[in-house]
Amino acid sequence: MSRGRRSSAVDAGGAADSEESDDEGSDDEGGGDGEGSDDGPATTERVTRRGVETGRWDGIRGAALALVGVGVIARRPGLVLLGAVGVGYALYASVGEAPAATLDVTRTVSDATPEPGDEVTVAVRARNAGDAPVADLRLVDGVPPALEVVDGPARIATALRPGSAAAFEYAVRATRGEHEWEAVTAITRNPSGSRERTTAIEPADPARVVCTPELAAGGDLPLRGLTTRYHGRMPTDVGGAGVEFHATREYRRGDPLKRVDWNRRARTGELATVELREERAATVVLLIDARESAYAAPEPAAETAVEASVGAAGQAFRALLDGGDRVGIAALGPVDCWLAPGAGSAHAARGRDTLATDPALAPTPSGDRFYRSLWLRRFRRRLPADAQVLFFTPLVDDAAASIARRIDAHGHLVTALSPDVTAGETPGERLVGFERRERLRELRSAGIRAVEWDGESFPVAVARATNRWSP
Amino acid sequence: MVAVSADGSPADGGANAPTDRPERDARPPTLAVVVALVAAAVASLAGFLAAPLGGALLGAATVGLVAGSFRRSHRLLSWAAGVGTVGLAVAGYRGGGVEALLVGGVALAVAWDAADHGLSVGAQVGREARTRRNVAVHAGTTLLVGALSVGVVYGVYLAAAGSQPVAALALLLFGAVVLASALR
């Protein structure tokens, strides 16, 4: 196949050198790396940054001349010759510019829609499309920050003749979210290594992985007594149809016969009607703390509080939806995320997508600024009046606790669900853990229910906490 | 507790900054260390043949190169190369043979170059990646340049053997230095 290909080079140093790489013909391209999916004109974007002096041969001239000087003074021809060899190396160091990496890079991932935890093999192939050999080439692939490389570094160092190619493979472990690879960084040096140039190469087809976890229902989730007028599973203090006894009242015409208290009729002769506890649906908004401070983990490789929160929110979402409640999703963070409460299978699919791939809940922080009061105003405007809030937060700063109290104060019952991401090694870490427990205590004393879990599964923690709560 | 911040995310694009993903071993590639060690041993041997004191200094330089490779210190490598150069100067001053000096000089250059190159490859790519070709090409080129220099210099020396004083050689060299400066 013969593909027309443009190649652009932007020289940050000012000297704009744009090279036109030849049509690549049908040589070894597309041999077995399955990149024939795009037949249109693909572009390999290259951005060349200014070359730098590495300075590694600095001092060779001085050493050479010193040797010559000693040789002349001491009348030793050997030293003069040695100095001359040193001058040869100095010459070698001063010739040659670091070449711009005119590479065609293709990148293929083995599975574009993996399950969480799957290993995805990434194959990178770089072909020297220029007409000069590259004596010293180091390639670093732009692995998405949230993906962990589990097999082999995503790097290679090699030398490439014109037209030849280097290929390497590595494996990443898929995590929840939508991940797009960044540009490949190519570092080239001239043969002596005295000059170095960095080039960012954007492959024609940037690899992308979308990883959407299945939502597993996580047991029964206790809600608080704020409900809608829809029938559901929350026992209320309203008498009516249901299963649990609530009260008796005197018979009124039209009451169903099966609710008449026949025992009482037999005992006293009066007609009475049994009232049962009405069960209604609740509106719940799952609020996930995704501020930068929530991207905290007990150790570098462990999952962050945001990951733990999203996992737990997924279980809660499924469990509540199965129980007939109306569930929505919101993120407390700089990037806006709002899924209005709803029910039904379409809503379940939307919720699964939101939890998996919404940029607000990305596995790494966005880096934008977060304005708390603006966020709170918008959140309150959107929140239905009868909604209660399940607030997933690691509670590692006072802002989270204060937001929970403010939402509660506005009449929305709040349950705080807090993954414990504190560690206990150093005094500082213990202090953070202590402060977090204090915040939990304050929330509880303010009448806000709080569940914390650490290592154990979320449903177990909820079941344990539920035993303490009054209905 | 570890905060994962936006700019703290492993920016793999960073060229010189050794960005440490946990899986990466930033030590220099084994081949580079082996090449440096062998070349330094050759340099020590040549220095010892020229003059024992010079050989001893070159031996110290070998130790310095190995230590610099393990401690990943460019500065230590530079010091080692400096000590090696002094060793060569001492060996030459003490009347070492021209051939041994030239072999020692090229071997020292290859040893330092391989070690230093290994450090930068280790920092940017790591030990576990495929680096063999890169290191071999680099060390081979340095050896070739050294051999060429020695060939030219030694050829001139033989052609002018005996009849020319040292000052004439130095003047020749001065011309080469001017040429080198002009080429920059």
Protein described:
The complex is a heterodimer of chains A (about 475) and B (about 180). Chain A is α+β, with helices and mostly antiparallel strands and about 475 residues long. Chain A is built from nine helices and 22 strands. In chain A, strands 1, 2, 3, 6, 8, 11 and 12 form a seven-stranded mixed beta sheet that branches. In chain A, strands 19-18-16-20-21-22 form a six-stranded mixed beta sheet, sandwiched between helices. With about 180 residues, chain B is mostly helical. Helices cover about 75% and strands about 0% of the residues of chain B. Chain B is built from six helices and one strand, in the order βαααααα. In chain B, helix 1 runs antiparallel to helix 2, helix 2 packs parallel to helix 4 and helix 3 runs antiparallel to helix 4 (about 100-125). The chains are: A alpha+beta (about 475), B mainly alpha (about 180). At the A-B interface, helix 1, helix 2, strand 6, strand 7 and strand 8 of A face strand 1, helix 3, helix 4, helix 5 and helix 6 of B. Strand 17 of chain A pairs antiparallel with strand 1 of chain B.
Note the total helix count of chain A: 9
| Count of folded domains of chain A | 4
**Mean model confidence by pLDDT of chain A:** 81
Strand count, sense and closure of the main sheet of chain A? 7 strands, mixed
Tell me the overall shape of chain B: globular
What is the CATH third-level topology name of the largest domain in chain A? Rossmann fold
β-strand amount of chain A: 25-35%
SSE order of chain B: EHHHHHH
Spans of at least 5 consecutive residues with low confidence of chain B: 1-21
